[in-house]
Amino acid sequence: TDPSDPSNPSDPSDPSDPSDPSDPSDPSDPSDPSNPSDPTDPSDPSDPSDPSDPSDPSGSTKPTKPDDGNDDAPQTGQLNWPIPVMAVFGILLLLAGVVLSIRRRTENR
Q: Residues 47, 49, 52, CA angle at the centre, nearest 5°?
């Protein structure tokens, strides 16, 4: 449905002009600080007393190594089996490079 026209519409009134702000007052002069009093001299410190020797803790034991049954195994999780495999592959790659280099030299003559 269409909206109905308002009954007794009136014109809005004009807003009043804003008033000008008042000028701020000048600040007063600050007062001079008072002079501090002279500091007191500290007294000489006394010599510390010698500490007493600590007593041995009761019931202390030396830590033991864990028993894993194999003292030669590395404890870092490092695998040792890839070392010889990679060494063999490296030697094979070097030999293949030498063979290919020799073949190219003989073909280019």
A: 160
Contacts of 74 (CB under 8 A, 6+ apart): 80
Going by C-beta distance under 8 Å and a sequence separation of 6 or more, which residues neighbour residue 80?
74
Entry pTM:
0.31
Q: Buried (b) or exposed (e) across 73-106, using 16+ Cβ within 10 A?
A: eeeeeeeeeeeeeeeeeeeeeeeeeeeeeeeeee
pLDDT tens readout for residues 58-102: 777 777 776 666 666 656 777 888 999 999 999 999 999 999 999
